[in-house]
Amino acid sequence: MRHGKPYRRWGGAQKRVNLLRNLVTGLVRFERIETSIARAHECQKYAERIIYVAKRGDKDPDAMRVADFWLTDKAQVHKLFKVLGQRYTHSNGPFTKIHKVGEPGFLGKMTAFLEFKGNPYPPLQPFERKNPKWLINVLLQGAQQDFHDSGLAQKTNHNITNDRSMDRLSDAVSEVKLVSSVEGTVVNEQTGLSDGHDGKNYEGTPV
After folding, report:
1. Are residue 41 and residue 109 in the same domain, yes or no?
2. Which of 57, 91, 95, 72 is nearest to 21 (CA)?
3. Which range, 2-6, 79-83, 153-157, 165-169, has the best average confidence (pLDDT)?
């Protein structure tokens, strides 16, 4: 807890400023970054302000001075004024959005995506935490319990097992070939006679 502190320290004032400058530069360059929720919320405030500055244009000396300070990669100054500034010309904000992702990990920390609106990436799916006490989950659990209590689940499983057994039996019968143990000739399944037999019972001829 910050206990009245106006901002997060993160190891000192200079370290905090360097961290925020790197986050803002990465956001301007990639338009979507992944970081912790605390850093995303802290960086979002400065990303919003730098877009307001970029909307003034590169002819404004104060805007150029602010962009030169916050962007550690000087190649992104052109993108800030010519791409992002032009994109939000007719928008009054907010220009960024935070998406929480994943379950809380060690010490309850979660990651988040901070992005500029209108970026070329596919949209992110909103994070939904599963709560067993939600109404829809309670109704689904009750329906599953009623289904098992009624005995329909056992009947369904029994029918599925019988169907699978019949399928295996029919496959086995269709593949069986009766072979004569004496001559080694294949016996016809319908007539019971070996191939080439004329149906007459000759003495000494196996049927």
Report:
1. yes
2. 72
3. 79-83
Whether the model pTM is above 0.70:
no
The span from the CA of 30 to the CA of 176, in Å, is 65
18 and 112 belong to one structural domain: yes
Number of domain units in the chain: 2
Residue 145 lies in a domain: no
Determine the straight-line distance between the first and last CA of the chain, rounded to whole angstroms: 95
- Residue 7: how many CA atoms within 13 Å on its side-chain side? 15
Spell 6-29 as b/e; 16+ CB within 10 A means b. Answer: eeeeeeeeeeeeebbbebbbbbbe
Whole-angstrom distance, CA of residue 169 vs CA of residue 129: 47
Q: How far apart are CA 160 and CA 36, in angstroms?
A: 49
* Higher-confidence position of 124 and 166: 124
Q: How confident is the model at residue 174 (pLDDT cuts 50, 70, 90)?
A: low
Which neighbouring-strand residues pair with 194?
187
| Rounded Cα distance, 28 and 21, in Å | 11
